[in-house]
Every structure is written in structure tokens, then in C-alpha cells.
UniProtKB/TrEMBL annotation:
InterPro entries associated with the record: Cell_wall/Cho-bd_repeat
Name of the protein this chain belongs to: Glucosyltransferase-I
Cell wall-binding repeat boundaries on the chain: 20-40
UniProt keyword Repeat, yes or no: yes
Highest taxon, organism lineage: Bacteria
Length: 153
């Protein structure tokens, strides 16, 4: 990679021709995309119909969280697409990401009977009960009574 006037470019090692409209990986397995003008892309970009995020150095974010404008995203470790409508297990913690790729807020008012999910837990309001899910395969119930949280076996 070459830095020219503050922009990153990549020149093919065999031909010396500037790479355009193409992904390139470095020796550490990091991926970059060079646009039609040959510059490395940055920020959110749609490439071949897929949304990706490239950090300030042009590296595609894969297998990692992105904290952007008060939202949290997680990008697939293989294809770099934002994870949507699914749980992700990272460092023994579970996270859920909605259709827009964002981790939803823990609480939305007014509470409805939809399921709310946030870092390490999901809950579904039902009357004054909350069904908490620590992992997508196990759950516990609690009840909030007079400001006290009661765990139910």
C-alpha cells in the first residue's frame, strides 16, 4: 500500500498498475477495498450490494464490534457484513442484532410484549414479569415487586 497526498492506494505487485474496484488483503489477512479512483474506502460503504465498514486506515471491520453514532454493530468474521436478526457469541457473552444490524436499546417505552435484547440479556415483558435470557438457549424469570427484583427458579 502507498500513501499519496494522505490517500491510500495499492499497486499490483506484478504489473505495477493501480488497483481499482477490488479487494486486496495484506500479509496479516486484513482486507481493504480500493474504489474506482483507486483510493481505499473508509466508513460505511456498499460494495457489490453488501454493506461494509472500513476503519480510518481503510481496513474492513470483520469479526468485531463497531460503535458508531451511539449504535453498536457487529460485523461477520468471514464476509464482513453486519450481522442481522441473530445472536452473536463473543468472549462468552451473547449479543443480539436486529434487521438493521444494530444492537437494540435495552428499554423502549411504552413496554410492549415484543422481546427486548441488550448486551448479555433479552427480556420479554408480560404483565409485571420479565423473561430474561442470558443465552439464546436458556432463560430465567424475574418479577419486579415494589422495586425489588425477585428471581424465580
Amino acid at each position: 500500500m502507498h500513501n499519496l497526498n494522505g490517500q491510500q492506494y495499492y499497486f499490483d505487485t506484478k504489473t505495477g498498475i493501480m488497483v481499482t474496484n477490488r479487494y486486496v488483503s495484506d500479509d496479516q489477512g486484513n482486507w481493504y477495498y480500493f474504489g474506482k479512483d483507486g483510493r481505499a474506502l473508509h466508513g460505511f460503504q456498499t460494495v457489490d450490494g453488501n454493506l461494509h465498514y472500513f476503519n480510518d486506515s481503510g481496513q474492513q471491520v470483520k469479526g468485531d464490534f463497531l460503535y458508531y453514532n451511539n449504535d453498536i454493530y457487529y460485523f461477520d468474521k468471514d464476509n464482513g457484513n453486519p450481522v442481522t436478526n441473530q445472536f452473536v457469541n463473543r468472549d462468552d457473552a451473547w449479543y443480539y442484532f436486529e434487521a438493521d444490524g444494530k444492537e437494540p436499546s435495552l428499554v423502549s417505552k411504552p413496554l410492549t410484549d415484543r422481546t427486548y435484547v441488550s448486551t448479555n440479556m433479552a427480556f420479554k415483558p408480560r404483565d409485571n414479569w420479565l423473561l430474561l435470557t442470558a443465552k439464546p438457549t436458556t432463560s430465567i424469570q424475574i418479577q419486579v415487586t415494589s422495586g425489588l427484583i425477585v428471581h424465580l427458579p
